[in-house]
Specification:
The chain is mainly beta. It has a domain at 37-122: OB fold (Dihydrolipoamide Acetyltransferase, E2P), CATH 2.40.50. The protein contains 1 helix and 5 strands, in the order H-E-E-E-E-E. A 5-stranded mixed beta barrel has the order 1-2-3-5-4. A hairpin with a 7-residue loop joins strand 2 (57-62) and strand 3 (70-75). It comes from Ravibacter arvi.
């Protein structure tokens, strides 16, 4: 019995260490806006979002005519769009393939891309 408690404590520490997820949805400077354009958007409604640590921003763009499909464009640091989470915008730009690690836990219908913002306008609504 005296060996059970240390074993359980070590097991709990090991499991809790594995449960910590890193924010892996970050484009590198080398692959940002490179390759073939996958799709483009023009004056689409979107919302600027940030990750938990506030060092990566994206624009979430619902796909018109669907209930749960959303394109998430990861923004590279060079973008001129304001880094303000919750900012509602009309955005135009080009989506490039995102080949980095994808974090699990996102709802079905969410697709990740690298987004080259060509223009944006803040929405008043």
């Amino acid at each position: 019995m005296k060996f059970v408690f240390p074993f359980l404590a070590a097991l709990m520490l090991g499991v809790s260490g594995c449960n910590q997820e890193k924010d892996t949805l970050k484009p590198s400077a080398e692959n940002c806006h490179s390759g073939k354009i996958v799709k483009s958007v023009r004056n689409q409604k979107g919302i600027v979002q940030s990750n938990a640590s506030g060092d990566q921003y994206s624009i979430s763009i619902p796909i018109p005519g669907t209930y749960d499909s959303v394109d998430v464009g990861l923004i590279c640091e060079a973008s001129s769009i304001p880094k303000q989470a919750g900012l509602k915008v009309y955005v135009s730009g080009n989506f490039y393939a995102y080949t980095g690690d994808k974090k699990t836990g996102y709802p079905a219908g969410v697709e990740f891309y690298l987004l080259d913002v060509t223009s944006y306008k803040v929405r008043d609504e």
